[in-house]
């Protein structure tokens, strides 16, 4: 490789993967090299700009931990997460549409002992009774499906953004009952800005981008024999539905949240009156 030039360095790099035993890995790496090299040549990337990017990646790694992933934030705000979702799951024609996992998912929660979970307790916020169901495409109930829900509090913050908390808040993992149903008592999630204290936030500031996400419920639904759903549900009326910084909104994921003043329903579920009631069915497809 002593005769490398601008014209042949890309081909030399691609040849270095010739012995890769995993064909898919080889395909991905070779394509990545071609596109990265084409990008660098197209914009005539300077050494100073390259070094700035390397430092930004270093800072993204330092700011990331089990509570926050700055690389996912980059992926979301650059539309890569949305593109991967749309390529692999579409807009929800066959199943509930996919949307961002986001940087604040926690994967070590215990499973609740009941399919009804109270996250509301005495926390401030607009009370919501979320009545969910999980079904196959044929409408058959999926009992025992694992459902993760996580959302912001009344300040627009996730629990992992509050280091003073000793336990999770507005986050749960449960299983659907014999009829594929579950209930979560919670509050209406508030919108929030993308984290602005890292290199991802610097990119948004430098480009004068909108930095807001509309309020949303995050869900992950898993069941044996079915494709996992990772999605978000967005209350209708939020002013950022059409300019979400993370490009996560899909028409089929925008939900109505009608106000309920029924004393009978409130007593049944021990909800304050009035409250917002959401009825939503997640549809899964077989693997």
Query: CATH topology of the largest domain, what is it called?
Result: Protocatechuate 3,4-Dioxygenase, subunit A
Quick one: CATH superfamily of the largest domain?
Aromatic compound dioxygenase
The largest sheet has its strands arranged as: 1-5-2-12-11
Gap from first CA to last CA? 46 Å
Molecular structure report:
- This protein is an alpha/beta fold and 287 residues long.
- The chain folds into two domains: 9-66, no CATH class; 74-284, Protocatechuate 3,4-Dioxygenase, subunit A, CATH 2.60.130.
- Helices cover 27% and strands 21% of the residues.
- The chain has seven helices and twelve strands.
- Helix 1 packs antiparallel against helix 2 (23-42).
- The radius of gyration is 22 Å and the shape is globular.
- The chain starts with 8 loop residues before the first helix and ends with a strand.
């Amino acid at each position: 490789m002593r005769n490398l030039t601008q014209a042949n360095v890309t081909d030399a790099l691609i040849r270095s993967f010739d012995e890769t035993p995993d064909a898919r890995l080889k395909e991905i790496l070779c394509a990545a090299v071609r596109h990265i090299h084409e990008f660098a040549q197209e914009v005539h990337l300077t050494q100073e700009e390259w070094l700035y990017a390397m430092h930004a990646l270093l800072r993204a790694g330092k700011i990331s931990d089990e509570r926050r992933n700055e690389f996912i934030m980059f992926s979301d705000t650059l539309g890569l997460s949305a593109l991967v979702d749309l390529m692999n799951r579409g807009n929800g024609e066959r199943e509930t549409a996919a949307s961002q996992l986001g940087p604040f998912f926690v994967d070590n929660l215990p499973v609740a002992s009941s399919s009804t979970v109270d996250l509301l307790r005495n926390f401030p916020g607009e009370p919501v009774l979320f009545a969910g169901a999980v079904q196959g495409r044929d409408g058959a109930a999926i009992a025992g499906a694992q459902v993760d829900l996580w959302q912001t509090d009344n300040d627009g913050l996730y629990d992992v953004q509050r280091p003073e908390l000793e336990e999770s808040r507005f986050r749960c993992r449960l299983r659907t009952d014999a009829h594929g149903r579950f209930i979560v008592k919670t509050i209406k999630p508030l919108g929030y800005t993308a984290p602005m204290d890292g290199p991802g936030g610097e990119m948004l500031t430098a480009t004068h981008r909108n930095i807001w996400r509309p309020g949303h419920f995050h869900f992950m639904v898993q069941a044996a024999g079915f494709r996992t759903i990772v999605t978000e549900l967005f209350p209708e009326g939020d002013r950022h539905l059409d300019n979400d910084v993370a490009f996560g909104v899909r028409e089929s994921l925008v939900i109505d949240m009608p106000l309920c003043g029924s004393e009978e329903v409130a007593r049944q579920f021990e909800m304050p009156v009035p409250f917002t009631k959401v009825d939503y069915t997640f549809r899964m497809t077989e693997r």
